[in-house]
Amino acid sequence: MANLPETGAWPAGIYQLETTDPVVGGPPDVGTGAGKSNIPLMQLAIRTFLNRQDINKALTTENSPRLLATSGHQQLGEGGLIFQWGRGSIYAADAPAGGTYLTFPKAFPTACFAVIPVDYRAAATQTQAQYVSGGVYTKDGFRAIAVNRSGNDSDTSLTYVALGY
């Protein structure tokens, strides 16, 4: 049993077997119609192969800058979406100034459009934060505040995910 070829140029379409097409196996050849039943399978295999190459290229270090650490970042392809994550501390004393400013591992080239902060303490008590909020996003970082169960500003540790480009 032989394998279908998975290399070549992106097929413009996928051949649809017609009711009048005889079921003919063998090596597919679009030009001659040989192996007609295997032509659409080969075309799908080529598209899958090329898509896999594109995904692998987008996630390689040379095309996607990344830092895989407790605080790090991953860019999807050159000029693509950037995911960042990290940990930090929030201090109640910073609340009047709009919260504690946390710096991203790497500045976003254009903008940050979302930050999702989460209090990561294992067991919350009356004095620990129950609500963590991030706001005032810049290319370099964001401000975060924490509020405890009593509604007072609180010190806490957080982990976050940020998205930008």
Automatic annotation (TrEMBL):
Pfam families per UniProt: Gp53-like_C
Putative tail fiber protein gp53-like C-terminal domain span: 78-165
Gene3D superfamilies: 2.60.40.3940
Superkingdom of origin organism: Bacteria
Name of the protein in its database record: Putative tail fiber protein gp53-like C-terminal domain-containing protein
